[in-house]
């Protein structure tokens, strides 16, 4: 491989994550357990542990490590919550989340990416991930409700289907805005409705689907 020792490179990345406000040591330890270089194309090996988003084909990216860690931290996972992830992508965020839950359901709307992520994570030994190729904006009602929902693609508005599938007491983290820039929003569902707060601006690929962006928009 072209980059330095993965262990050394990972520890350098973890130092950067701490500097960017990631304080949950469980999440930092998850980054040690999930080798990011296995989720990028061979041409990107040298950049695998840089704190940058990288292309994974089909106009998609593996998210910047700081964003992966931040969204995981914002979810406030304890141990056994049932999690829904929208946007499997390379499967890196999925693998991080899998460290904190007994079962994660993940949806990807690009078939080739879904197949590749499934193969990769199965080969890595993950047994608590359920995969689906489909429209993530509609969620996965069959297994609802979910204690946590993470959306790794930008929606113009929060999909109603995802709101309905979040249990009372649950939390959803989702980027909402236009195609160029979004607000990372935390939604907590209470008995009285939804409480919203912002975690800053981000840039994600669009969430395509019936309750997301249309391809021609």
Give the C-level CATH assignment of the domain at 59-202: Alpha Beta
> Count the helices. How many?
6
N-to-C order of helices and strands: HHEEHEHEHEEHEEE
Sum up the overall morphology in one term.
globular
Please identify, by name, the CATH architecture of the domain at 59-202.
Answer: 3-Layer(aba) Sandwich
Report the biggest beta sheet as strand number plus sense, adding barrel if it closes. 7 strands, mixed
Structural class estimated from helices and strands: alpha/beta
Strand percentage lies at 25-35%
CATH superfamily placement of the domain at 59-202? Vaccinia Virus protein VP39
Helix percentage range: 25-40%
CATH topology of the domain at 59-202: Rossmann fold
Average pLDDT score: 94
Rg over C-alpha atoms, rounded to the nearest angstrom: 16 Å
Question: N-to-C terminal Cα separation, in Å?
Answer: 40 Å
Q: Tell me the total number of β-strands.
A: 9
Strands of the widest sheet, in order across it, are: 5-4-3-6-7-8-9
Report low-confidence residues grouped into runs of 5 or more: none
Would you write up a description of this structure?
This protein has helices spanning 6-19, 25-33, 65-75, 92-98, 111-123, 160-165, and strands at residues 54-57, 60-62, 82-86, 103-108, 129-133, 146-151, 166-177, 182-190, 193-202. With 217 residues, it is α/β, with parallel strands linked by helices. It has a domain at 59-202: Vaccinia Virus protein VP39 (Rossmann fold, 3-Layer(aba) Sandwich), CATH 3.40.50. Helix content is 28%, strand content 28%.
